[in-house]
Amino acid sequence: MSLRALAKAMGRSHVAVQKWARSPGWPFGQTGPWDVRAVLAWAQVSLHPDRSAGGTDAGAGRGGRVGDLPPLLQAELQLKIYRARFLDLQTQELKGRLHDAEECRRRRLGLIQGAKARLLDLARSAATDLVGQDRETIERVLDERIRRILEEWARGDGQTIETSDAVTATETEGAAAAGDGAGAGS
Known about the structure:
It contains seven helices and no strands. It is mainly α. It starts with a helix and ends with a helix.
């Protein structure tokens, strides 16, 4: 059977069938005879519908769906999409836009545990500085220290705000001055 006879039996142009026979995906050899049923089955799985017969080329875009494609083309398209997504992920990773989720979780838990420990230790660490202070001073000092701890946690970089002795001394001196002023007036 010639290519023209095969094309006529399939309802396709001889030019189209000639292109198929030259393509690397053509499994039937370059010269006939060809089994028309086998070629039709191959075309059903491997090719787009015939546009010249009023069919639509689903791969041409414009309303075509992946589900409208023959199974082999669906698989090829899904593979191309997978490869494109994989390349995009590799690019994002190289640009430093991706991170290890487990590492992120460990870091987040570490920050939470650090803030918790500092908040739980706040009463003990502030007790000696606040002995004998009035209520307003105690509230102000505790408020400042709690805010400092929460700011460190919100920043999330693991760095603590410098809580030097000078800051503690300033808080204590302010508290003492407020206490002395109250004592002088009585």
